[in-house]
Amino acid sequence: MTIVLGSNRYGKAENRIVRIYRDTPRHEIHDVSVSTALHGDFAAAHLVGDQLHVLPTDTQKQTAYSFAKEKGLLSIESYGIDLATHFVDHIEPVAGARIEIEEFAWERVVVDGAEHNHTWVRRGQEVRTAAISVEGTGPAQQVWVVGGLKDLVILKSTGSEFAGFMQDPYTLLQPTNDRVMATSVTAGWRFMTTDVDWEATYAGIKQILITQFATVHSLALQQTLYRMGEAVLEAYPFIAEIRLSAPNKHHFLYDLSPFNVANNDEVYHAADRPYGLIQATITHDDAPDAGPAWDSYTGLV
Amino acid sequence: MTIVLGSNRYGKAENRIVRIYRDTPRHEIHDVSVSTALHGDFAAAHLVGDQLHVLPTDTQKQTAYSFAKEKGLLSIESYGIDLATHFVDHIEPVAGARIEIEEFAWERVVVDGAEHNHTWVRRGQEVRTAAISVEGTGPAQQVWVVGGLKDLVILKSTGSEFAGFMQDPYTLLQPTNDRVMATSVTAGWRFMTTDVDWEATYAGIKQILITQFATVHSLALQQTLYRMGEAVLEAYPFIAEIRLSAPNKHHFLYDLSPFNVANNDEVYHAADRPYGLIQATITHDDAPDAGPAWDSYTGLV
Amino acid sequence: MTIVLGSNRYGKAENRIVRIYRDTPRHEIHDVSVSTALHGDFAAAHLVGDQLHVLPTDTQKQTAYSFAKEKGLLSIESYGIDLATHFVDHIEPVAGARIEIEEFAWERVVVDGAEHNHTWVRRGQEVRTAAISVEGTGPAQQVWVVGGLKDLVILKSTGSEFAGFMQDPYTLLQPTNDRVMATSVTAGWRFMTTDVDWEATYAGIKQILITQFATVHSLALQQTLYRMGEAVLEAYPFIAEIRLSAPNKHHFLYDLSPFNVANNDEVYHAADRPYGLIQATITHDDAPDAGPAWDSYTGLV
Amino acid sequence: MTIVLGSNRYGKAENRIVRIYRDTPRHEIHDVSVSTALHGDFAAAHLVGDQLHVLPTDTQKQTAYSFAKEKGLLSIESYGIDLATHFVDHIEPVAGARIEIEEFAWERVVVDGAEHNHTWVRRGQEVRTAAISVEGTGPAQQVWVVGGLKDLVILKSTGSEFAGFMQDPYTLLQPTNDRVMATSVTAGWRFMTTDVDWEATYAGIKQILITQFATVHSLALQQTLYRMGEAVLEAYPFIAEIRLSAPNKHHFLYDLSPFNVANNDEVYHAADRPYGLIQATITHDDAPDAGPAWDSYTGLV
Lengths: 301, 301, 301, 301
Known about the structure:
By secondary structure, chain A is α+β, with helices and mostly antiparallel strands. The first copy, chain A, contains five helices and 13 strands.
């Protein structure tokens, strides 16, 4: 029985880069958190502490900041591809790179009815995400891109039921035909190509997710999620699959009957924990292999 | 030397109440966190554990939820006045009540070009706040209302300087005539009346704060804050004073010169800590006494 | 009606300083977050953006780090006094300074039965705090020191009641004669002198707070808090007053009766929100004036 | 090209269960957060909203609380096995269950030199974790158990180098032969059996991790992690593999030379972001298949 080094990676997490475009008086802002992770033949560093083939995480940071100017930072997907490809192509011991990016949205303030040139407020709604994996060099090089979002908190005050469910001896829940349904959507969608209008696609997918949540009469959060994902795949044939994670942010109807106050679905307690958590993948049945596309750097390797 | 009970209060913090108005198909939502605090003659509870005059915090919670229906929850200021007055007027041992409220904004989603009737996304920008203090009963009763906001994150990419400052042996900072200025505004404004259009006033003040931040050419965050507050007081004569707290969320220009990359105020590092913190009060010189208006329940009593 | 600048202050918040003492192989560590706030005649900065009398917040930061070596960082109270006095004595426009410090505790790891010389784990229990205010110069100079702690989470599984309380139409709560009582103590104690063994006093007060919580049979959290504070004042006559803030971290007995499972005070749900919040001051009746001792920098000025 | 439902699961996350053992005056406390996730044939719920085979997440919650009494909650690993097995064995549509648990440690307070019977403070150091996956029924049933911890913050003030690393045009970092090394360890270890003394094993592994961190002279965090993992596998042959994730919590030596103050590795700035992030698996070369052992419920399915 031999003890060996298994999978491993390293990098610099959460570089907080803000890129201003200021070539005209109307500036543009891109505000991101970038994490880089490299893997390859780094066994010597682990086994004997030899750093000869280890590109410091500080160097990865410097590169990430410099690329915001050298390559530009307009779409996080293309910036991430540039950065990942650089590490794989130019740093010899690197076999593969993963870049994870969060983008924080700002909206231009309006002054005297006009959008201001160089002032914004944080929009604070959802966070846009991207994860790029590049493996190998030359003709064998493969690139996986996952776009996504998180923290999209959405609520409907009617049009949602939960009834007809399974019963066992621990089942106390009462069925309901009209409830508040709320969630905080995390979604990732995997592209089958990099020839994409990243900005338009992001906006389109977000609108589809919202529209489906609003308009599907929901018999369960599972059903709503499926319809959200299905609509995205129907609209964008170059997306292989979409994965959704949705906490059921419970809003419990508050019992006001002891006070002789009618509560006709009007007053709720918004609970913190516990919460239901529903996760689903909607995919093409012949989707290409996902490879490392979903191997998040925030989990254990 | 005698040990005695000093100031004290108690209540129920962070009741997460969601109120839906659904009298027409176009629902409305109000999503708040309500904290109640009572003070009065509660010495027996402290000194000998006698609860005879202690209205349980659970009862305060029940009241807060029920009032969302009984009194309605349209403006947090008026709801807070209703709740505070109730405790002072109807619970005999209570000499004064303080209600602190945070309101989380939702915006209606747009589906097929039209605002949806019953689906929203959390706007996630600033949190609106209110603090109501009521002291005494009958003709002697006094009411203080402080409106406010927090977490309004705002940034300008030019139009901000910091130069000509004091020097001492620990001063290393270089002056700058063009920098990114960003902050997360916390503000509270004290009303001199309760005869107010709370919704219009909130919207108006927020717009003034944003407009001043955007349009004042800033020589220092102090100057910007003063002008923000001054403009609010000029526009709303029934506001006695405004208090502002603004962290200087530093954006440091990133040095790309080692890589022979020009950085013309384009690439920044957004730092977390430490941060400058500027606080100021802008007030009428003859403002009426603030009483307990600013005695926040989140601090020590 | 004239608009004027009211109270104001500025500084550098959350400097994360780690000080290692390494004069012998047995190192010592002090890990703190330091915030500095200055006030004085800074009207020109607010009114016209003139920085001539403004010591930059960056300079305050440099001073805080340098003083960790120059003056040492053994007790946060004495370090804070050094720093506050420096700003008031040596920076001409400064009338008063406030230093707020949090200290994070580390405990030495044990290897082969012996404490290790230079390795620690974060203890992660309570955070020790100090707030120092210095006003004026020369013989008129006054110094206020408040020691304290926060996040001391403590629980007792019996020895706590809540019964005999006031009833009104909104009261649903049932009395109980045996409950779990848990809280997260925030405490501040104000010294009447600076001639104090800071380390021994901190350890002594923490032990008293814990002992009283454990051993007082509690009829209400109010009563427990009073006894905690009273015991501190009895033990340390140089403490003028102590202020306590204690959320009632509710542990609700879980109803297992639908499953025919007995729950003899054994299974609880630990709730997040809402929570009761009890605050009290225990003081000497002739305590000297508190001055600015309690004017926390985290609130509005 | 057909759109289909891919992998999916659902459950109740973050049930905050506190279990008191009170059969003698010396009580015991177990404080956990339990998440349950089920998978199986739930396609009807997704595709057409049919709940007939869906055991509500509320029922999963009720079961988790009841099992804390019915089965007991002494070791989180065995409690998790009981709960997972229940869902797979007794809920017909369930093909597999995953239970994830966090345990928060309390330590008995000491009063008058003796441990108190029923009062504790939260220890607040690391959080113990467990993840149990059960797949299939009857003789084909398989069980995977991963023990672990997170948030073990550990620091050494000497005995750590980083030098001799790779250089590229973006490399600015200077080598160092004496630095502060600090991290917050997340670890998971996979058992090859369920016949384990869970408590002794947890304590033993934690001690090994700490000892190795303290005593290995570190040439890189990678090397330290490998030695930590290797030592665990050497001591516990029934552990198949251990996975470690360790942020390099940078402590930057503060430059005091402008003030003519010597800083002999004594004053540091503790930085928040960005941070290095090192991840590694140390494994037996013939470890059995990991199956779903590492499929965390907090990520996308």
